[in-house]
Protein backbone atom coordinates (compact mmCIF):
# COMPACT_ATOMS: atom_id res chain seq x y z
CA UNK A 1 0.00 0.00 0.00
CA UNK A 2 1.35 3.39 -1.00
CA UNK A 3 0.67 6.51 1.06
CA UNK A 4 0.52 10.02 -0.34
CA UNK A 5 1.30 12.91 2.01
CA UNK A 6 -0.04 16.38 1.31
CA UNK A 7 1.47 19.17 3.38
CA UNK A 8 0.31 22.70 3.91
CA UNK A 9 1.39 25.46 6.23
CA UNK A 10 -1.07 24.39 8.93
CA UNK A 11 -1.35 20.60 8.59
CA UNK A 12 -0.28 17.39 6.93
CA UNK A 13 -2.80 14.92 5.49
CA UNK A 14 -2.09 11.30 4.54
CA UNK A 15 -4.18 9.40 1.97
CA UNK A 16 -4.24 5.72 1.17
CA UNK A 17 -3.51 5.74 -2.57
CA UNK A 18 -5.23 2.44 -3.39
CA UNK A 19 -8.45 4.38 -4.11
CA UNK A 20 -6.83 7.67 -5.16
CA UNK A 21 -7.23 9.15 -8.65
CA UNK A 22 -5.72 12.39 -9.91
CA UNK A 23 -7.30 14.53 -12.60
CA UNK A 24 -5.39 17.31 -14.31
CA UNK A 25 -6.87 20.65 -15.17
CA UNK A 26 -5.51 23.23 -17.55
CA UNK A 27 -3.70 26.27 -16.19
CA UNK A 28 -5.79 29.05 -14.71
CA UNK A 29 -5.84 32.25 -16.75
CA UNK A 30 -6.35 35.65 -15.28
CA UNK A 31 -6.97 38.97 -16.99
CA UNK A 32 -3.86 40.89 -17.98
CA UNK A 33 -2.08 42.25 -14.96
CA UNK A 34 1.36 42.48 -13.49
CA UNK A 35 0.92 39.33 -11.39
CA UNK A 36 -0.88 37.08 -13.90
CA UNK A 37 2.21 35.12 -14.95
CA UNK A 38 3.16 34.32 -11.37
CA UNK A 39 -0.31 32.90 -10.62
CA UNK A 40 -0.55 30.47 -13.53
CA UNK A 41 -0.19 26.96 -12.19
CA UNK A 42 -1.36 23.49 -13.01
CA UNK A 43 -4.04 22.39 -10.59
CA UNK A 44 -4.75 18.82 -9.57
CA UNK A 45 -7.89 17.61 -7.89
CA UNK A 46 -7.98 14.59 -5.62
CA UNK A 47 -10.87 12.23 -6.28
CA UNK A 48 -11.28 9.64 -3.57
CA UNK A 49 -13.50 6.61 -4.09
CA UNK A 50 -15.27 4.95 -1.16
CA UNK A 51 -15.11 1.32 -0.17
CA UNK A 52 -18.27 -0.65 0.66
CA UNK A 53 -17.61 -0.31 4.40
CA UNK A 54 -17.25 3.47 4.04
CA UNK A 55 -20.55 3.59 2.08
CA UNK A 56 -22.28 1.68 4.89
CA UNK A 57 -20.79 4.07 7.44
CA UNK A 58 -22.05 7.09 5.49
CA UNK A 59 -25.53 5.56 5.24
CA UNK A 60 -25.53 5.07 9.02
CA UNK A 61 -24.59 8.73 9.48
CA UNK A 62 -27.41 9.79 7.14
CA UNK A 63 -29.82 7.63 9.15
CA UNK A 64 -28.73 9.53 12.28
CA UNK A 65 -29.50 12.83 10.57
CA UNK A 66 -32.92 11.56 9.53
CA UNK A 67 -33.64 10.54 13.13
CA UNK A 68 -32.74 14.10 14.19
CA UNK A 69 -34.98 15.85 11.69
CA UNK A 70 -36.90 18.70 13.28
CA UNK A 71 -40.68 18.42 13.34
CA UNK A 72 -42.17 18.48 9.83
CA UNK A 73 -44.19 21.57 10.77
CA UNK A 74 -40.99 23.58 11.45
CA UNK A 75 -39.61 25.91 8.77
CA UNK A 76 -36.94 24.43 6.52
CA UNK A 77 -34.45 27.08 7.69
CA UNK A 78 -34.44 25.37 11.12
CA UNK A 79 -33.03 22.19 9.52
CA UNK A 80 -29.29 21.60 9.18
CA UNK A 81 -27.90 20.95 5.71
CA UNK A 82 -27.18 17.26 6.48
CA UNK A 83 -30.80 16.87 7.64
CA UNK A 84 -32.08 18.48 4.41
CA UNK A 85 -29.82 16.22 2.33
CA UNK A 86 -31.02 13.12 4.19
CA UNK A 87 -34.63 14.22 3.75
CA UNK A 88 -34.15 14.75 -0.01
CA UNK A 89 -32.58 11.29 -0.36
CA UNK A 90 -35.48 9.82 1.60
CA UNK A 91 -37.89 11.42 -0.91
CA UNK A 92 -36.00 9.78 -3.80
CA UNK A 93 -33.75 12.65 -4.92
CA UNK A 94 -30.16 11.98 -5.95
CA UNK A 95 -27.39 14.52 -5.84
CA UNK A 96 -25.55 15.80 -8.89
CA UNK A 97 -21.86 14.99 -8.59
CA UNK A 98 -20.44 18.22 -10.02
CA UNK A 99 -22.76 20.60 -8.13
CA UNK A 100 -23.62 19.65 -4.57
CA UNK A 101 -26.56 22.08 -4.46
CA UNK A 102 -28.38 20.39 -7.38
CA UNK A 103 -30.60 17.33 -6.92
CA UNK A 104 -32.72 15.29 -9.35
CA UNK A 105 -35.76 13.09 -8.97
CA UNK A 106 -37.36 10.83 -11.58
CA UNK A 107 -40.98 9.93 -10.89
CA UNK A 108 -43.04 7.91 -13.36
CA UNK A 109 -45.18 10.99 -14.14
CA UNK A 110 -42.44 13.67 -14.16
CA UNK A 111 -38.74 14.43 -13.74
CA UNK A 112 -37.46 17.41 -11.78
CA UNK A 113 -34.31 19.27 -10.85
CA UNK A 114 -34.11 20.81 -7.37
CA UNK A 115 -31.63 23.57 -6.49
CA UNK A 116 -30.76 24.69 -2.99
CA UNK A 117 -30.13 28.40 -3.39
CA UNK A 118 -28.96 30.79 -0.71
CA UNK A 119 -32.42 32.20 0.01
CA UNK A 120 -34.87 29.78 -1.64
CA UNK A 121 -35.35 26.23 -2.82
CA UNK A 122 -36.12 25.94 -6.56
CA UNK A 123 -37.78 23.00 -8.27
CA UNK A 124 -37.87 22.77 -12.06
CA UNK A 125 -40.14 20.14 -13.58
CA UNK A 126 -38.49 19.13 -16.84
CA UNK A 127 -40.41 18.96 -20.11
CA UNK A 128 -37.86 16.36 -21.27
CA UNK A 129 -39.27 13.91 -18.70
CA UNK A 130 -42.48 11.89 -18.92
CA UNK A 131 -45.74 13.77 -18.98
CA UNK A 132 -47.02 16.40 -21.36
CA UNK A 133 -45.31 19.63 -20.28
CA UNK A 134 -44.98 22.23 -23.05
CA UNK A 135 -42.05 23.85 -21.25
CA UNK A 136 -40.07 23.50 -18.04
CA UNK A 137 -42.11 24.61 -15.03
CA UNK A 138 -40.19 26.23 -12.19
CA UNK A 139 -41.40 26.91 -8.68
CA UNK A 140 -39.64 28.67 -5.83
CA UNK A 141 -40.14 27.98 -2.14
CA UNK A 142 -38.89 30.06 0.76
CA UNK A 143 -36.96 28.24 3.48
CA UNK A 144 -39.50 29.85 5.86
CA UNK A 145 -42.11 27.31 4.70
CA UNK A 146 -42.46 24.09 6.66
CA UNK A 147 -40.76 20.93 5.46
CA UNK A 148 -44.20 19.30 5.22
CA UNK A 149 -45.59 22.07 2.97
CA UNK A 150 -42.53 22.02 0.70
CA UNK A 151 -42.62 18.22 0.47
CA UNK A 152 -46.32 18.20 -0.43
CA UNK A 153 -45.84 20.92 -3.05
CA UNK A 154 -42.81 19.24 -4.63
CA UNK A 155 -44.27 15.74 -4.72
CA UNK A 156 -47.56 17.09 -6.04
CA UNK A 157 -45.75 17.59 -9.33
CA UNK A 158 -46.21 20.27 -11.93
Task: Write structural notes for this entry.
The protein is an alpha+beta fold. It folds into 2 domains: 3-48, no CATH class; 52-155, no CATH class. It has helices at residues 36-39, 52-67, 81-91, 147-155, and strands at residues 3-7, 12-16, 20-25, 43-48, 94-95, 102-106, 111-116, 120-126, 137-142. A hairpin with a 6-residue loop joins strand 5 and strand 6. The radius of gyration is 21 Å and the shape is globular. The model is unreliable at 1-30 and 32-58 (pLDDT under 50).
Largest sheet composition: 5 strands, antiparallel
- Enumerate the strands of the largest sheet in spatial order, edge to edge or round the barrel: 5-6-7-8-9
- Helix count? 4
Euclidean distance between termini CA atoms: 52 Å
Pfam family, one: DUF3143
InterPro entries: DUF3143
SSE map:
Blueprint: E1 3-7, E2 12-16, E3 20-25, H1 36-39, E4 43-48, H2 52-67, H3 81-91, E5 94-95, E6 102-106, E7 111-116, E8 120-126, E9 137-142, H4 147-155
Antiparallel strand pairs: 1-2, 3-4, 5-6, 6-7, 7-8, 8-9
GO cellular component, one term: plastid stroma
Pfam family, one: DUF3143
InterPro entries: DUF3143
Give a concise summary:
InterPro entries: DUF3143 (IPR021489). By secondary structure, this protein is an alpha+beta fold.
Key terms for this structure?
single chain; 158 residues; five-stranded antiparallel β-sheet; two-stranded antiparallel sheet; disordered N terminus
